[in-house]
Amino acid sequence: MSRVARDTRRVIAVAMTACGIAACGTGAAPSLTPGAPTHGAGCVTKAEATRIWTTIDAKLNAIEADARHGGVSAVATGSFLDQVELYMAQQLEANNFTEDEVDKLDSITVVAPGCDNGTLQLRVTLTLVKDNYVKATGQVDHADPSVGKTLHFLESFIRSGGAWKESDLQNLDNPGPSQTPQVV
Prior knowledge:
The protein is an alpha+beta fold. Helices cover 25% and strands 31% of the residues. Strands 1, 2, 3, 4 and 5 form a 5-stranded antiparallel sheet that branches. Strand 4 (150-160) and strand 5 (163-171) form a beta hairpin.
């Protein structure tokens, strides 16, 4: 997944996070969470989910690598779109950076297959291979300290205007603060 997506996800929890480029999966049967629906109109298989995730991730990576970065709304919507736009403005545009990111998809599990125009939810594990912040001159300013680490996300996608768009993201490694007060 792209840095935008990975950093956007960090911001959802604390900062922002995104995911990286991955290879497409096989046509094997979907890997579903027990109890997840497997029938209905438009249910997404594991192979289709991998293709959807890979396509959106590649587009987010390309947007972050381009100083003009148009088209975020073509692949993101809802709270995820808000987080990506915030990340782009605060982390990239404000510093006159672009981002060169490469991620390796380690695994993907279909949690909810998006049947009957429902939400497609995926559990994604990826390794951040490269993530450089690049100055307008083309020189690398710095690399993300997460390079080499394995990251885990719960990502949601919805159908919008005939295309899948990422709508929400949860960083499973650094979940946000609990909404329920704890008794000590």
